[in-house]
Task: inverse folding
């Protein structure tokens, strides 16, 4: 039976992925900062799907521990979903270097640190899938969230380069760019319904893409179109927009 | 955002926050916890709402003894998905599986087996409640008993129900041995209920538009969990199969006045007429037996944008028969009741504030029209004069007077709310209307 490692397992998207993977019979390794939340999710998955679930303390910002964390997993995973990240408040981050750095580290540096380790292991095994949950925010910097967006842009570029490197040895890398998703992270934001996906939809899209070996997926098709337009607005116009 | 419960009345502008498992109160200001919004009134509405739906994990399930622990936001359909394949069923279930466990406790829901098994909380072993002080208290019939008693049917006014442990019911199969009997009128129906008191599940549907000898004609539906040897060969292939996902969504809000005397009459005639023989036996899955309306998602759209009121009351035995006749006459006169009127027998219920009492309960829907509220006022008076009372979970309009007349423990309930919830941190539009809590800000 296959094993999946979920990094940032307490997020809503991660949790939806875990449920669907458990349903397909995957063994799960749940990694995150909050031990209590992890063990609650573990009990739920074990009761509902009769699969085995282990929990692992993981902090994306403790780069030095990542190598040991990966060694301690026990079984080496066949699928890794990198789902951690923080949105952070843009305006605060513009003035507060600590928060700004945390946004960059949680969304980019931390992901690079752990996925380097995962990628080397999978490259050696010549098999496996790496899923990075990036964001449409990374496709073009906008005033409303460019610190988050720039970190996600870096992450998207990282995933693309990683794919270029290890698809040759049979490791699949999937970049996910969900648009709006109704989660804890976006609670209270006025999200337009037709553009907003549910975490279950995102999970379904991810698992389908893993199965098919897709390189990049937007969950709601409309986002591909929206981002195509946003990417193609000439900079001299774009800079005047309030987005 | 605009929030309404299942009857789409009232709709209020609320700030809704998901409870995030932190063990902290969601708001500084007064708020009310809300599950899946399947109650019919304003019990889980206020300007601040703490949504418990994301707090929905299974925490423990003992397959040997059938005890189950989950977070309060888990809905019954998910509980069934987990427990039924292991041969365990909900001890008590209302007519929809889309309510949360926390809602089941707060409403202390009843089912078709009330005369047999009591309300849901009879089967609750213990609860965790997030109280006014921010402390999480465990309560049960023996530990913090007063908190437990007041939380059972207490409409979320003692605190936020976080976690529930309850005892499931052992089943051999997920099918129901179902018997359906036609009754010519109300008296025959009442006799049939009495004759079948030993049957675990019973409920009836009645046609409230009939007059004279046919007044209250209807169908009595009886059920027992089917034993393995009662199943057909096909059913035996998967005797503990769970419910299928609901597929049909009611496509749109119907225009106003779609539910009128004519359409109701047509529906009722068709419903009564579809069964030819007086008695019909069948082995059916639990899903159509317990949750016939769940098959159509968003069936509430039938009543249009204006919404509807559901009206459920109980009249004690002794008064029941005469009372039911009076009430049915009144409803027929008014002439705008729903197609589905549900009549059921309640057994004894001795707890503190829950709705059921020994007698007959009737539940019906009324589309919102001019004059409805005045009419229901009259009906309220008639019912409390008969010694009856109304179900808070289906109420959006009752007066304080009606509530206090119907519930002998109303004053003590109010006092205990004051004790557990002194600054009215937990407060709903309903509790404010009934004067059980006061608006503080």
Result:
């Amino acid at each position: 039976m296959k094993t999946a490692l979920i990094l940032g397992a307490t997020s809503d998207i991660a949790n939806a992925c875990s449920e669907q993977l458990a349903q397909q019979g995957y063994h799960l390794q749940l990694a995150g900062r909050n031990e209590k939340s992890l063990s609650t999710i573990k009990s739920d998955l074990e009761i509902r799907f009769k699969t085995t679930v282990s929990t692992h303390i993981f902090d994306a910002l403790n780069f030095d521990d990542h190598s040991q964390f990966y060694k301690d997993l026990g079984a080496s995973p066949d699928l890794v979903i990198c789902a951690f990240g923080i949105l952070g408040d843009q305006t605060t981050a513009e003035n507060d270097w600590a928060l700004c750095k945390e946004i960059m580290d949680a969304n980019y540096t931390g992901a690079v640190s752990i996925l380097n380790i995962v990628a080397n292991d999978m490259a050696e095994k010549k098999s496996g899938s790496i899923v990075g949950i990036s964001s449409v925010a990374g496709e073009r910097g906008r005033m409303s969230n460019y610190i988050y967006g720039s970190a996600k842009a870096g992450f998207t570029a990282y995933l693309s380069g990683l794919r270029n490197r290890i698809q040759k040895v049979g490791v699949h890398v999937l970049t996910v760019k969900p648009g709006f998703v109704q989660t804890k992270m976006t609670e209270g934001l006025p999200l337009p319904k037709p553009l907003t996906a549910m975490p279950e939809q995102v999970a379904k899209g991810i698992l389908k893409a893993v199965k098919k070996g897709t390189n990049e997926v937007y969950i709601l098709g409309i986002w591909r179109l929206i981002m195509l337009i946003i990417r193609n607005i000439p900079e001299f116009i774009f800079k005047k927009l309030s987005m | 955002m605009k929030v309404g419960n299942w009857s789409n009345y009232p709709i209020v502008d609320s700030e809704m926050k998901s409870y995030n498992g932190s063990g902290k109160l969601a708001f500084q200001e007064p708020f009310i916890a809300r599950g899946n919004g399947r109650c019919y009134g304003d019990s889980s509405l206020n300007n601040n709402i703490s949504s418990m739906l994301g707090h929905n994990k299974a925490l423990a399930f003992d397959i040997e003894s059938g005890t189950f622990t989950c977070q309060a936001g888990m809905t019954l359909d998910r509980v069934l998905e987990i427990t039924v394949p292991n041969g365990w069923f909900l001890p008590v279930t209302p007519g929809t599986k889309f309510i949360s466990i926390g809602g089941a406790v707060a409403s202390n829901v009843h089912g078709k087996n009330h005369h047999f098994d009591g309300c849901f909380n009879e089967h609750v072993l213990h609860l965790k409640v997030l109280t006014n002080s921010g402390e999480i208290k465990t309560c049960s019939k023996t530990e913090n008993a007063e908190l437990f008693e007041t939380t059972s049917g207490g409409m979320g006014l003692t605190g936020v129900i976080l976690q529930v442990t309850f005892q499931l019911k052992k089943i051999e199969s997920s099918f129901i041995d179902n018997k359906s009997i036609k009754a010519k009128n109300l008296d025959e129906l009442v006799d049939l209920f009495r004759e079948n008191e030993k049957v675990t599940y019973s409920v009836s549907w009645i046609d409230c538009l009939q007059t004279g000898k046919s007044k209250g004609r209807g169908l009595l539906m009886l059920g027992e969990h089917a034993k393995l040897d009662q199943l057909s060969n096909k059913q035996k292939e998967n005797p503990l199969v769970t419910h299928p996902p609901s597929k049909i969504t009611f496509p749109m809000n119907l225009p106003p006045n779609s539910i009128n005397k004519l359409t109701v009459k047509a529906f009722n005639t068709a419903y009564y007429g579809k069964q030819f023989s007086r008695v019909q036996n069948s082995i059916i899955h639990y899903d159509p037996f317990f949750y016939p309306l769940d098959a159509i998602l968003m069936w509430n759209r039938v009543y249009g944008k204006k919404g509807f009121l559901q009206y459920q009351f109980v009249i004690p035995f002794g008064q029941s028969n005469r009372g039911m006749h009076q009430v049915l006459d009144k409803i027929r006169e008014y002439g705008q009741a729903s197609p589905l009127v549900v009549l059921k027998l309640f057994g004894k219920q001795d707890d503190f504030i829950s709705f059921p009492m020994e007698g007959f309960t009737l539940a019906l829907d009324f589309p919102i029209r001019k004059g409805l509220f005045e009419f229901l006022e009259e009906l309220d008076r008639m019912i409390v004069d008969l010694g009856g009372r109304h179900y808070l979970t289906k109420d959006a309009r009752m007066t304080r007077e009606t509530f206090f007349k119907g519930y002998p423990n109303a004053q003590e309930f109010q006092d205990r709310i004051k004790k557990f919830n002194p600054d009215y941190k937990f407060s709903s539009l309903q509790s404010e209307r009934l004067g059980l809590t006061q608006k503080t800000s």
Observations:
- Chain A has one domain: 3-238.
- The first strand of chain A starts at residue 3 and ends at 7.
